[in-house]
Amino acid sequence: MGQLAKQSALYFNLIFVCSSFTIIFPFYPGVSESKGIELWLVGLIFSLNPIIKLIATPFLGRIMFRIGRKLVVVASIILIGSSLLVLGPIEYCDKATVIFLSVLSRLLSGLASACAFMSITSIFVTDYPDKVVTMLGRMEASIGIGYTIGPLIGMSMYAIKVIGTLVLFGLIIIIFAFVAWKMLGEFRPLKIDNSKINSLPILFKPRIFLTMLMGTTYLFSYGLLGTLLETHLRNLGLDSVYISLCFGLQSAFYLCTSIVAGIILKNANERVFLIIGLGLLTIGYSMLGPWSEIYPNKLWIVIFSLPIISIGQNFVCSKNYIVFNIPYMQKSIVIDYGYARDDIIDDHICSYAVTFNAFGEIIGPIYAGFVSDFLGIEVCCAIASGATGIYFLAYIVGSGILYDFVKYKRREVATEDFEDNNSSDKQ
């Protein structure tokens, strides 16, 4: 098949991965609580997905070179569907069985996520070098759609129960895997000029490392919300249907903001996006608690924090980490640090990006579960707000944006002086 079919299969894969991640947010914490599972354990179960992704990613890069990226993409689709089928009967199981099925489901989904993001990012970066920004932009749109429809699909549990929702969606995904094999066709072989290059020193270059941390920040925010938001809103008296709607609206706002931001701020410096995003996340977390030293403890404050967090997530990741920051890091490696362009370096950048994402997914749920259980949701969100604020200041200093701004101003002054002197000489 042609390029349209191939790209469509990849985008649908991303939609399925991300929707399977958020489909359980509206009901899983509630089901777990009804089985006597504590919130800290829910956070730990949520974190198993990225832990497996973190462990699998370094090995997956080597395996992918041997078995081919197509097989890795199709395997991710089958694993996604299987993770949902495994979780289906949790309403009818005892506590120990629910924990076992949840752990198994998260292990499968972690492998699926690692396979999907590693292979698809590599494909877009290496197979479409002239259209990498366009391809990654569409990739981000697919991710946004997946995060948006996940909670909406989860709402169908009120009509066909949890088991009906998860089994139906899981079977659809597995059936799609066989269709995707035909749609994907063939990918170009990777050109590796120096397979023995040590890319680890590249990772710790300041501009690269600080940019990589944006993926951690982004996925941390999703883990935080997924673990505590349902419980938090229920404690404030919100009905379950409206809680699911809050998740859907938060993701929908993220997607819409992604489109609008791309149009309005498409010519802005990449690092400006990141700074704005970190500032908004800092404010959003303080309202999510809400932090009683600043805001009243009202439901509307918490709900109003969700679009602010969505915009922050969007600026930190949507128009930066994927669409701008991978190309930005590719450019910085060559221009700022003097490395030659090579497919293996690009592949390592994609691998590091998945790894840093996994760190955020691990830290977010564990942090939210433990700190909320032992210190309360307000303290949990206040600490998250403070830590993000510190990172906000560190990025301004360490990313070189202040240095570039000062250098630009000096160049402007020098140009004006030159023009003035030239004008005086003519007179």
Automatic annotation (TrEMBL):
Compartment(s) where it occurs, according to its Swiss-Prot or TrEMBL record: Membrane
Gene3D superfamilies on file: MFS general substrate transporter like domains (1.20.1250.20)
Keyword Zinc part of the UniProt annotation: no
Residues passing through the membrane, by range: 9-28, 40-59, 71-90, 96-120, 166-187, 208-229, 241-265, 272-288, 300-322, 349-368, 374-403
Highest taxon in the source lineage: Eukaryota
Membrane topology, as annotated: Multi-pass membrane protein
Keywords in alphabetical order: Membrane, Transmembrane, Transmembrane helix, Transport
Assigned GO CC terms: membrane
Molecular function (Gene Ontology), one example: transmembrane transporter activity
The family this protein is said to belong to: Belongs to the major facilitator superfamily. Vesicular transporter family.
Protein name, per record: Major facilitator superfamily (MFS) profile domain-containing protein
Organism of this sequence: Stentor coeruleus
